[in-house]
Each structure stands twice: as structure tokens, then as C-alpha cells.
Amino acid sequence: MPELEGKRVLITAGPTQEPIDPVRYIGNRSTGKMGIAIAEAAAQQGALVTLVCGPSSVESSDSIKRINVKTAQEMFDAVMEIESEKDVLILSAAVADYRPKIVADTKIKKKDNGLMIELESTPDILATLGTRKKAGQVLVGFALETDNELENAIDKLNRKNCDLLVLNSLQNEGAGFGHDTNRVSILDRHNNISNFELKSKAEVAKDILQAITDYK
Q1: Where along the chain do its domains lie?
Q2: Among the options 28, 152, 161, 172, which is catalytic?
Q3: For the segment 8-28, what is each residue's pLDDT rounded down to a tens digit?
Q4: pLDDT tens-digit profile of 122-141?
Q5: 28 tagged catalytic
Q6: Mean of per-residue pLDDT scores for the chain
Q7: Alpha-carbon distance 210 to 138, whole Å?
Q8: Residue 157 and residue 126: Cα distance in Å, rounded?
């Protein structure tokens, strides 16, 4: 029997887009490939998968319940509505940390003297889940770092009350946004760290799910 047979799994994937005006937005380079690969692998193992996905051209199979969102607030609201009924929460989305405080109703015209945009923080989905986590739930966070990778990942795991944290670095060739491959390290609350070689994202997804099923 597959390890995740019958488990209720919530996965977030992709970027968020924070509007500046009706034409422009603040976003990032995430494609959603990694999170959707995890969703597909979990479904293949018999899990009941709900995918909350930001704007992505990557399709998912009919066995996955997909909720499409655009903004960090929309992703937050979708996750909080259903998180309490899930066994495993995997937060792989690249959620924008900031959004414009004021969104213009019409397109902002270009001016020679530049443009100043005041930003405010978006809701922290992972941290909120860390405070709401129930006994028996497994919470998995992700960290994409450019420097002090391990130190920052350990801090994030503890500060946001994760059980596991998947770390990838933009310093590793073939890893991160846009690639079909990834190279990750997986940390847990018991100070265990597993380092993996560069693999396809489909294979990385299996490693992540195995770490979840092995976690005690």
C-alpha cells in the first residue's frame, strides 16, 4: 500500500501576483513546477490532494483538486478555509512578501521623474499555519536562499514551527525557478539534515514525500 494512501494533503505552488494597477503587478520567477510535481507524486501514492496554485501554465491531472488563485491574500484565504481538515500541509509556493499598499484603479502613466510605490507585508501563510497546527498534522515549509542557506533555513524552520523544511539555493546550477531539475536539502525538527544531488523535480518530489512519511 502506498505510504500516503488516503491521507489528505494540501499543497501550495507557483508564484503570487500583487497588483500595482490593472496592467502591472509585483511577482517572481516561480513556475509552479516543483509544487505541482509534489501534488502529482502524492496523488500517485493514493493521497487526496488539494492544490492551491498561483498563476502557472503547468497543468495538473484530474485526480488533483486544484484551486487557482492570484494574490497572496487569495492564497491565504483558500488555505485557511481548508487547512484544519488536512493531514499534511506542504507550502511550496513562492508567495510575495510585499504588495502595494494602494492599488491604482487605472493604468499609471509613465513619468520622467520616476515612481514611488509604498509596500506593505502580505499575510504569512506558513507562520499562521505554524500557530494553528494540530496534533498529528505535518507542516512542511520551503526556503529558497542565495546566501547563508543552512543558517537561514534552520531559523525559518524553528521560527515558523515547521516539522520539515525543504531548502534549495540559487547558487546551485540547475536548481530553483524555471528548471526541470532541482537540488534540495531537507531539514527536520530533530536536527536531521538530508542532502540530495541534482535530480528531476519529479524525483525530488518523491524524496520530499518519503521524508514526510518517515518523519516521526
Answers
A1: 8-214
A2: 28
A3: 999 999 999 999 999 999 999
A4: 999 999 999 999 999 999 99
A5: yes
A6: 94
A7: 13
A8: 10
The secondary structure of the chain, three-state, reads CCCCCCCEEEEEECECCEECCCCCEECCCCCCHHHHHHHHHHHHCCCEEEEEECCCCCCCCCCCEEEECCCHHHHHHHHHHHHHHCCEEEECCECCCEEECCCCCCCCCCCCCCCCCCEEECCCHHHHHHHHCCCCCEEEEEEEECCCHHHHHHHHHHHCCCCEEEEEECCCCCCCCCCCEECCEEEECCCCEEECCCEEHHHHHHHHHHHHHHCC
The fourth-level CATH superfamily of domain 8-214 is: CoaB-like (3.40.50.10300)
Q: Do 62 and 42 touch, CB atoms closer than 8 A?
A: no
Largest CA distance in the chain: 64
The grid cell for 198 is: 541534482
Count of residues for the chain?
A: 216
